Amino acid sequence: MKKLIYLISFAGAVLLFNACSAGYVSIEPAYQEVYRPTRPGDSYIWIEGNWYWNNRTRSYYRGDGYWTMPRQGRNYERGHWNKARRGYHWVPGRWQ
Fold first, then answer.
1. Residue 74 C-alpha from the chain's centroid
2. For residue 56, pLDDT beyond 60
3. Distance between CA atoms of residues 75 and 95, nearest Å
4. 53 close to 76: Cβ distance less than 8 angstroms
């Protein structure tokens, strides 16, 4: 029982730490030109790469974009920068 309580407490602390470690910057990073490979087929759509927070360097880095088939009955919402009281943070793209 003690192990279970310890494990649950540890998991909660890890989740709390990760939630609090979201990256904020004072200005949005500059747009970066990225290589876009040839479209594999007419029905594919391009998904822009997201920005990812690096806790060690305390900065964002750009991930690669990719071609994918659209998901049936869903639309892709591109990621965007959101201005908050603490600065800007990245809201990743997602399927809706």
1. 19
2. yes
3. 6
4. no
The structure's pTM equals 0.68
Q: Are 90 and 76 in contact (CB under 8 A)?
A: no
Whether the Cβ atoms of residue 29 and residue 79 lie closer than 8 Å to each other: no
* 22-27: Cβ within 8 A, 24+ apart: 22/53, 22/89, 23/53, 23/54, 23/55, 23/58, 23/59, 23/60, 23/89, 23/90, 24/84, 24/86, 24/87, 24/88, 24/89, 25/59, 25/60, 25/87, 25/88, 25/89, 26/87, 26/88, 27/88
* The pLDDT of residue 15 is above 90: no
3-class secondary-structure state, position 37: coil
Measured over the CA atoms of residue 72, residue 48, residue 59 and residue 83, the dihedral's sign is negative
